[in-house]
Amino acid sequence: MAFRRHFSGGPFEAKLAYCRALEADGWIFVSGSTGTDPETGEMPHGVVAQCRNTLGTIGRALAEFGAGFGDVVRVTYMLPDRADFEACWPVLQEVFGDAPPAATMIECGLISPAMKIEIEVTAKAP
């Protein structure tokens, strides 16, 4: 089986030995991604801004394989505080709209206290 890997250049990819996304046999697996602003390298304070940035990172990774959010079949949301999740719902509605994937939300600790949300997805390549 051939693998294609995408590296976004994020600092944790090298430190933790992983790639942002991997395509195998027509499936795309996007690693857990967080809300660092790709232009400034800063982490916004609010969960909604982090959610938007995170989805931007995921969207760019999917695009590397010719896919988009309509191809996502599974999404996992991880938040340190489940009470923050509802504020993200309008953003998720914008992104997934009429093609929502199967989803799970997990309340858990993230690698940095500044991180308010981490998202990972699985998609079927078009």
UniProtKB/TrEMBL annotation:
CDD domains in UniProt: YjgF_YER057c_UK114_like_6
Family annotation (SUPFAM superfamilies): YjgF-like (SSF55298)
Gene3D superfamilies hit by this protein: RutC-like (3.30.1330.40)
Protein known as: Enamine deaminase RidA, house cleaning of reactive enamine intermediates, YjgF/YER057c/UK114 family
Protein's organism: Albimonas pacifica
